[in-house]
Amino acid sequence: MMGLAAEMAGKMSISGVQEKVSLRLSDDKSRFEIAPTGGRYILKPEPSRFAFVPQNEHLTMRLAELVGIEVPPFGLVELKDKAIAYIIKRFDRLDDGTKLQVEDFCQLDEKPIRDKYQGSGELCVRILRKYATEPLIEIRKLFKVLLFSWWASNGDQHLKNFSLIRTPEGRWRLTPAYDLICTRLPIPSDRDLAMPICGKKNNITKQQWLDFAKYAGIPERAAVRLLQEQIDALELSLRFIESSFLPDDLKIQYQDIVQHNTALLR
Ligand SMILES: Nc1ncnc2c1ncn2[C@@H]1O[C@H](COP(=O)(O)OP(=O)(O)O)[C@@H](O)[C@H]1O
Ligand SMILES: [Mg+2]
After folding, report:
1. In the β-sheet with 41-44, what is the strand arrangement from edge to edge?
2. Which residue has a Cα nearest atom 14 of ligand 1?
3. C-alpha 220 to ligand 2 mean position (Å)
4. Residue 9: is its pLDDT beyond 80?
5. What is d(CA 174, CA 152) in angstroms, rounded to the nearest whole number?
6. pLDDT score for 7
7. How far is the CA of 221 from the centre of ligand 1 (A)?
8. Residue of the CA atom closest to atom 11 of ligand 1
9. What percent of the chain is predicted at pLDDT more than 90?
10. Which range has the worst mean pLDDT, 11-15, 90-94, 134-138, 147-151?
11. Ligand 1: lining residues by beta carbon, under 6 Å
12. Which pLDDT tens digit goes with each residue over 163-194?
């Protein structure tokens, strides 16, 4: 699988750091087939450097869904050798195969890929003000994803992990969320956000989230509600983590992380 993924790299219209394989459903919908072109699904096998990344991404995407963040259909699959891989349905293809235009925030800000970490929450807000058809709506969605990402200790939420998509009606909106993962589990020393808010990548306080909301034009009452929604998701999140596919020690670490970060929001 990894050899195949390496072979596909560069041939597929999917970029990113981790190896990926493009798949489609067979005609009788009974199995996935390799699809060098026209794939409807993206398979991310377990990377060689870190353990339990598919299970981590699967859980983190579920936790995002729990606070109302829109995500594509996704799941875990077992490969022939029993390895677990993460699979997600593409959001940029219509049922008839039409490809929708997608531009990530690195492209929208006209930055080369190597500058994908040269972003900030504030820059993302400005990008939405400039390009989204309904900036106020999209900015609230962005705020939720950035808040959640921090809460789940995702230190890899850079400019290429946000994109706008052009709907068939010609409206530019945020894509469903993708690539959400608790990077602190595989890299315990990773305590920094990829993109600062209020100039800070760590030790962020409740007040700084409120200040960032103010910059984003979100009224204070609405911002307080958004923080409260993340706080209210704690109990169910702990249960989701408990019933996830992570090993017990990583479950406990993940639970400690979200409990700690929830306390910072109170
Ligand atoms: N469900 C999806 N539909 C369409 N494009 C996607 C989807 N998920 C990811 N992508 C695109 O593929 C790229 C790589 O996927 P991502 O999950 O970010 O992998 P990596 O962990 O390698 O960064 C993303 O930057 C995005 O442009
Ligand atoms: Mg990515």
Report:
1. 32-34, 21-25, 41-44, 84-89, 74-78
2. 16
3. 31
4. no
5. 20
6. 67
7. 33
8. 14
9. 88
10. 11-15
11. 14-18, 42, 72, 88, 90-92, 104, 160-161, 163, 178-179
12. 999 999 999 999 999 999 999 999 999 899 99
**Interacting residues of 60 by C-beta distance below 8 A, sequence separation 6+:** 152, 154, 180, 181, 182
Residue with CA at minimum distance from ligand 1 atom 10: 14
Residue type, 34: I
Distance CA 78, CA 146 (A): 31
| Sequence-ordered list of residues with C-beta below 8 angstroms from that of 118, at least 6 positions apart, any chain | 111, 159
Place of tokens 């090993």: 247
Tokens of 187: 């890299």
* Residue 13 pLDDT greater than 60, yes or no: no
pLDDT of residue 6: 66
Q: What CA–CA distance (Å, rounded) separates 76 from 244?
A: 11
Residues 102, 165 contacting (CB under 8 angstroms) = yes
What pLDDT does 16 receive?
62
Annotate 178-209 with DSSP letters as a single string.
-----TTTT-TT--S-SS-BTTBSSS--HHHH
Res. 27 pLDDT band, cuts 50 70 90: very high
Q: Which of 2, 19, 20, 42, when mutated, tests ligand 1's pocket best, judged by the most ligand atoms within 8 Å of its CB?
A: 42
Output phi, psi for 137, to 5 deg: -70, -45
Q: Kindly tell me if the per-residue pLDDT of 17 is higher than 80.
A: no
Ligand 1 centroid distance, CA of 219 (Å): 32
